[in-house]
Design goal:
heterodimer; A: alpha/beta; Rossmann fold; FAD/NAD(P)-binding domain; Alpha-Beta Plaits; 5-stranded parallel β-sheet; 34 strands; elongated; B: 198 residues; mainly alpha; Fumarate Reductase Iron-sulfur Protein, Chain B, domain 2; 12 helices; 0% strand; globular
Chain lengths: 662, 198
């Protein structure tokens, strides 16, 4: 027979001002199994907790009910109290008679007291069926995987490595750097993107704790926090580690048929290439789909010119399997493809370019070495029109969200253009200027006031080609006037969208993503870098469009979260999780399919002697105890520890019975 | 400033009425101005389409009804095609015309409603357009009796482009059917408008 103690808290006058606490305590004494019931001014205070410990010792109690505030507030306090008294910490139940009673029913003290009595009685009947639970521990593999070598991935890898943990950084392209490496300058300070990025890239390559895997992709993931098992495909670079990065092979390669994606397809790219001069690692790769040797079997010029004979045509794709304790996903973004905009030329007009193409045009390491010329005839420009919100804030294109950075980078590009060519005139068509950030609004104002950029408030309706000029038909809604501008170049401010294949990639981790493909964070405010999968964190634009400062902050936040996991010897796991009774489990996989945390595994297991069946098993370190599986189970084989069906139903039963007057 | 906003009007249901009649969500408009940018007749309007949308949002019905914008709309639907918020702006313009005629507003534009009325009358009575009747009646009612008669009208008559005699229905029962159909549609329209306005 359980020996229960009930402790009713006054909470100053917070509870006792409304609820007759002594009556609650007296009623508790009449309940079966309750050996002692006391009320006290502040149960959570030291003397209050000592009262509990003393009562446990004198009355030989084995479980208690605290009638006080919300369990969110003080459940942990009283669990610790129980531990100090030598009891199992999970033998406490809290009846919330403050938030649920006194604060909301101050107008009817009689009924409030009765409700408090009932809530306390329900907790008593629940705690009567409580079972001893023990804290669980899981081992941690103290290596982190960072996916994506953009500024987010670089920052996260550097921060984790700085804490002394091993990091593997996986990048799809042949060099890290990501989108930021494509940019010329950054807002709002106009400092050179490469100048602030390359030191970090070099730091990554020199850090002893970081293993850099470029030209590699994650193909398969299994396991859970502390124990992820990840398969990584290292694509064949065709250049081995003897390479010293002299670049002779790239210069001599005769094949320049393909266009450089890195340069926004504005310039050619050799079949053997590095992304950009400051690439890290500075080792070229051969694109086997365009290389003359791989297509026709003849050429081999790169092999002949290489001074260290580093070119190796026989290299094969390599699949490696590694274990990690935590993962940072920083896969970044693509820009919206404006070929769906018929009114802007379906992407077919050569002189209507995307913002990223403009960055490459004005970048001194770009295809034109920093000369802004028209892609169609290589002539210099005079009038340039910038159009904002292309693929952003556009419901008809299924992109209703704001991409957050376009207002700023458009102002930046207009200013850079004026800096390079003082005789040019820029026009910016905008809907609203969103410059919320430190020094952002001032930056846009500077573009208008000091650089003479003309801002016109309206979306452009159509771009026509007339002669070798572009006729931009827009309006300024503030004055109500239509306007036609003869432009030499039109730069669209393409919005940001998830990487192609982001949805499929999220499936590797069972991460959820929103309707556009951006990965979902666990909580929009209070858990912005965590995902629903414990041990997997997101950083940068793969979660939502954001600028460089936000991305870096987010990446450092993920690093802190990863280090917090690694700092522990073993992972402590709350035992309030689901458990499967495999004798009654029918193996229908319903729980496996509904589990939002992929905490259930299906296994063929010997449940009875000589009987092997397909049954569910809970991964204890992954389960969060949400209880979805309990509701879904057809054969009632799943139960939630600490919230078992017996406990909950007895509570319900108590709730429906009248208060017995003693 | 030309007008002052009346807070009472914002709360009253003008926007709702237009939304219900046109089946378009006007509150969706976020004033990007793409409709005004592409409108081929905006130069003649006293307010561009985007401003009319804003006025409807704010319940400025007197200004909207007295504006010539909806009457000058040629229903080319450029605005509708390009609206990023998927509002059928041309349909809203039609709705405003219907509401202006149904209500007791002083129309800013008289000749266009007259033309519309004669055009529909011609179709009601003959099943197709009777050009000479249309031109004649329009010129008389709009008080420009000699408009375009010389030289264009004369040339067209000489070349046989305009017939003096209307093409009538072959079967008189068709005429009755046609008139009945027009009556029914008018009745339904009236019901729809008054029901929504009530």
């Amino acid at each position: 027979m359980a020996r229960i103690g009930v402790f009713v808290c006054h909470c100053g006058t917070n509870i006792s001002g409304v609820v007759d606490v002594s009556r609650v305590a007296k009623y508790a004494e009449s309940l079966p199994g309750v050996k002692v019931a006391v009320d006290y001014k502040f149960m959570c205070s030291d003397p209050g907790q000592n009262t509990i410990i003393d009562a446990i010792k004198t009355h030989n109690l084995d479980r208690i009910v605290v009638s006080a505030c919300s369990p969110r507030m003080h459940e942990l306090t009283f669990r610790n109290t129980l531990e100090r008294a030598g009891l199992n910490p999970y033998m406490v139940e809290m009846a919330n008679i403050r938030e649920h009673v006194s604060w909301v029913h101050s107008d009817n003290k009689e009924l409030a007291t009765e409700k408090a009595m009932k809530l306390m009685e329900m907790s008593v009947s629940k705690v009567r069926r409580s079972e001893v639970l023990t804290k669980m521990f899981a081992p941690i593999e103290k290596r982190a995987l960072v996916i994506g070598g953009g500024i987010a991935g670089i920052q996260a890898a550097l921060d984790i490595a700085a804490a002394g943990y091993k990091v593997v950084l996986v990048e799809k392209e042949s060099s890290i750097g990501g989108r930021m490496a494509q940019l010329d300058k950054t807002f709002p300070t106009l400092d050179c993107s490469a100048c602030i990025l390359t030191p970090k890239m070099v730091a990554v390559s020199q850090d002893k704790n970081i293993t850099l895997l470029t030209y590699a992709e994650v193909t398969e993931v299994s396991g859970f926090i502390g124990q992820f098992e990840v398969k990584i495909k290292k694509k064949a670079k065709s250049v081995n580690s003897k390479c010293i990065g002299c670049g002779v092979c790239v210069t001599k390669c005769p094949n320049k048929k393909s266009l450089s994606d890195f340069d926004g397809r504005l310039g050619p790219r050799k079949a053997i290439y590095t992304l950009f001069p400051q690439a890290v690692p500075n080792v070229p790769v051969i694109d086997r789909e365009t290389c003359t040797f791989f297509l026709t079997g003849k050429c081999k010029i790169c092999e002949k010119v290489c001074p260290t004979s580093a070119v190796d045509y026989t290299q094969q794709d390599e699949l490696i399997t590694e274990k990690f304790g935590a993962v940072v996903v920083a896969t970044g973004f693509d820009i919206y493809d404006h070929s769906s905009y018929g009114e802007y030329g379906y992407g077919e007009i050569k002189d209507v370019i995307s913002s990223l193409q403009f960055e490459r045009l004005i970048s001194s390491s770009g295809p034109t070495e920093g000369h802004v010329v028209r892609p169609s005839d290589q002539k210099e420009v005079k009038n340039v029109v910038f159009i904002q919100c292309v693929g952003s804030r556009d419901e008809s294109k299924k992109r209703p969200y704001c991409s957050r950075v376009c207002c700023m980078y458009t102002a930046k590009q207009a200013m850079l253009l004026k800096d390079h060519y003082p005789e040019t005139q820029s026009y910016v068509f905008y809907i609203d200027i969103r410059a919320a950030g430190k020094n952002y609004e001032e930056f846009v104002q500077r573009a208008q006031n000091d650089y003479g950029v003309v801002y016109l408030r309206g979306r452009v309706s159509k771009i026509y080609e007339r002669g070798n000029k572009l006729l931009v038909k827009g309006a300024d809604t503030l004055s109500g006037a239509q306007v036609e501008i003869e432009a030499d170049l039109v730069v669209l401010a393409n919005g940001l969208e998830p990487r192609k294949g982001a949805k499929e990639f999220s499936q590797l981790f069972h991460m959820s993503s929103d309707q556009y493909g951006f990965y979902n964070e666990l909580h929009p405010k209070l858990a912005p870098v965590e995902t629903a999968i414990s041990g997997v964190f997101v950083a940068g634009c793969c979660q939502s469009p954001k600028d460089i400062p936000d991305t870096v902050a987010m990446a450092s936040a993920t690093a802190a979260k990863v280090c917090a996991i690694f700092a522990k010897e073993k992972m402590e796991v709350e035992p309030l999780i689901a458990g499967v009774n495999q004798l009654t489990c029918s193996g229908c996989e319903t729980c496996y399919n509904v589990c939002p945390y992929s905490a259930i595994e299906m296994k063929d297991k010997e449940v009875k002697r000589g009987e092997v069946r397909h049954v569910a098993e809970v991964l204890e370190s992954v389960c969060k105890g949400c209880g979805v599986c309990v509701g879904a189970c057809y054969s009632k084989a799943v139960d939630l520890k600490g919230f078992s069906e017996r406990q909950i139903l007895s509570q319900v039963e108590t709730a429906t019975m009248p208060i017995t007057n003693s | 400033m030309k007008y002052e906003l009346q807070l009472k009007n914002i709360a009253e249901g003008f926007r709702k009425d237009v939304e219900n009649l046109s089946q378009q969500k006007i509150s969706n408009c976020y004033q990007c101005g793409k409709c005004s940018a592409g409108c081929p007749v905006a130069y003649a309007m006293d307010y561009p389409p985007s401003m009319i949308m804003r006025m409807v949002q704010l319940g400025m019905h007197d200004q909207v009804m007295s504006s010539n914008t909806s009457w000058y709309c040629v229903s080319c639907e450029t605005c509708t095609t390009r609206c990023p918020r998927e509002i059928d702006i041309a349909k809203v313009m039609d709705t405003l015309k219907i509401m202006a005629q149904a209500g007791s507003y002083k129309l800013s534009e008289n000749e266009i409603p007259i033309f519309d009325w004669i055009f529909l009358k011609s179709i009601e009575l003959t099943g197709k357009i009777y050009e000479l009747g249309l031109i004649g009646a329009y010129n008389l009612l709009s008080l420009h009796p000699l408009k375009d008669i010389y030289p264009m009208g004369l040339k067209m008559i000489i070349k046989g482009k305009i017939n003096f005699i209307p093409h009538l229905f072959y079967n008189p029962s068709e005429l009755i059917k046609n008139i009945r159909m027009f009556k029914l549609i008018r009745k339904k329209d009236r019901e729809r408008i008054y029901e929504k306005n009530a």
